[in-house]
Design goal:
The structure is a single chain. The two termini are 30 Å apart. The N terminus is likely disordered. The protein is α/β, with parallel strands linked by helices. It has nine helices and seven strands; from the N terminus they run αβαβαββααβααβααβ. It is globular, with a radius of gyration of 19 Å. α6 runs parallel beside α8, α6 runs antiparallel to α9 and α8 packs antiparallel against α9. β2, α3 and β3 form a beta-alpha-beta unit. Helix content is 44%, strand content 22%.
């Protein structure tokens, strides 16, 4: 769940793709940023899958003019074996899908790549973020703030009945792809520069659940903690330009 520019990650994928046609493309964990990029590629067709109807509407609004008759947006869960059964794609994009799966199919991550394997005719591009929440207490100001925001977000989600994202390291992804009969061809990490949008979305994500919490003393204390984190992070961003912390990664793999 990071904020990062298209240029570093998607341009790297375009470089890896080279002259290979995009063909039929599956955006397996679609969102506004990924579909904006996908809809601008020279594809034969694309399919965008999300687990949430609200996200599907936002994606649909984003590509209202670019969407062609052969393109489709689906609401589905990858734990459902019937989803896109028998279909196949030349290019598969999994943009932060691994972390998001936890909210829709808890504990399904070890099976995700095996699930995508029959759908992948050409190449799979996996985008993720190196985990930062379970790390030891960081020492730098930026690392500490990102760590505290992540732990605050996850604690609030669990307390109010939700499920947090569960990110996995790139080395785990490589191992799981190989187990699922993929050959890993490229792994690259990209330093992250968190901006104010990241801080806002992470803190605001907690607010609706906290507003419904019966224990108002606890809820008010957590809301105040979130606002304090917001203020501290924004102050650093104003001074330093961003919270420089952690890494995104791209893993490219092809079916064996």
């Amino acid at each position: 769940m990071t904020t990062r520019s298209k240029s570093a990650v998607f341009r790297h994928i375009e470089d890896l793709q080279g002259a290979r046609p995009w063909g039929a493309l599956l955006d397996a964990g679609t969102g506004v940023k990924s579909i904006r990029w996908v809809s601008g590629l020279e594809t034969e067709r694309w399919t965008a899958v999300t687990g949430a109807s609200g996200d599907a509407q936002r994606v649909s609004d984003e590509v209202q003019e670019a969407k062609r008759p052969q393109d489709q947006i689906l609401v589905g869960n990858w734990a459902d074996g019937r989803l896109l059964k028998g279909d196949g794609y030349d290019t598969v994009l999994a943009d932060y899908l691994l972390g998001a799966v936890e909210g829709f199919a808890p504990f399904f991550q070890p099976y995700l790549f095996a699930r995508l394997r029959p759908l992948t005719r050409g190449v799979l591009y996996m985008i993720g973020v190196e985990p930062y929440v379970p790390a030891d207490h960081p020492t730098s100001t930026a690392d500490r703030l990102v760590w505290e925001i992540g732990r605050y977000r996850d604690a609030c989600l669990l307390l109010t009945g939700g499920l947090p994202y569960r990110e996995y390291p790139s080395r785990w992804v490589v191992d799981q792809l190989q187990r699922a009969a993929f050959k890993v061809g490229d792994v690259k990490r990209f330093p992250i520069r968190y901006k104010a949008h990241f801080v806002k979305t992470q803190i605001d994500l907690c607010r609706p659940g906290l507003e419904r919490l019966a224990d108002r003393t606890l809820a008010d204390a957590l809301i105040a903690r979130g606002e304090a984190l917001r203020a501290d992070a924004i102050d650093v961003i104003k001074t330093e330009g961003a919270l420089r912390s952690g890494y995104d990664y791209v893993v490219a793999a092809e079916p064996v």
